[in-house]
UniProtKB/TrEMBL annotation:
Keywords: Signal. This is Lipoprotein. It comes from Rheinheimera marina. Residues 1-26 form the signal peptide. PROSITE patterns: PROKAR_LIPOPROTEIN.
Length: 181
């Protein structure tokens, strides 16, 4: 049960990484792939990607595609979790109440909560291999993104920018403020 919050954090991080990379989801070659460097939504420089940048970008794209495949089983997990959350909300009323100066504990609600908690633990255990796979892939994507941005930064020392976008045959328009590094 302790890994579920960690899963959410990693899943959100992975989604952010995939979103940051999605502007470049195309078949690239060094002649058509461009990097647009932007500052305050204005292009400060645009140039072709180097071979190292292109290779790192393609690796990042491949990993992002894999991540999307790994996320598919998690949709069932999310639906099942929503059902359990709804069941907990439907219990609604407090388990402990103060009546006539006494503390009254609703044992039936405690039992229902324990059953739901047990079901959640079983569900998490069932999906733990998927959660672990997503976690591992998220870490790999993070490393690939670091390699990609490392190549870019090495080739553009001193350039003042707050956003980079990959432009290619499928993504030729600049989207200001959407893909911030």
């Amino acid at each position: 049960m302790k890994k579920y919050p960690l899963f959410l954090m990693l899943a959100l991080s992975s989604v952010a990484a995939i979103t940051a990379c999605s502007s470049a989801n195309a078949e690239n070659n060094s002649q058509t792939s461009q990097l647009a460097f932007m500052k305050d939504c204005k292009i400060v420089k645009q140039r072709a990607m180097t071979k190292d940048e292109l290779a790192a970008h393609q690796q990042l794209e491949a990993m992002s595609t894999q991540m999307k495949n790994f996320e598919l089983p998690m949709k069932d997990f999310e639906l099942a979790m929503k059902k359990h959350e709804l069941a907990m909300k439907q219990l609604g009323e407090p388990v402990v109440e103060h009546k006539d100066g006494k503390i009254v504990i609703d044992q039936s609600k405690i039992a229902q909560q324990q059953l739901i908690a047990s079901d959640i633990e079983k569900l998490v255990a069932q999906y733990q291999p998927n959660i672990d796979q997503l976690t591992e892939q998220g870490e790999k994507i993070g490393q690939a993104a670091d390699r990609f941005t490392g190549h870019i930064k090495a080739n553009e020392p001193g350039l003042d920018y707050d956003n980079i976008q990959v432009l290619d045959e499928k993504h030729s328009q600049i989207h200001c403020g959407v893909y911030t590094l």
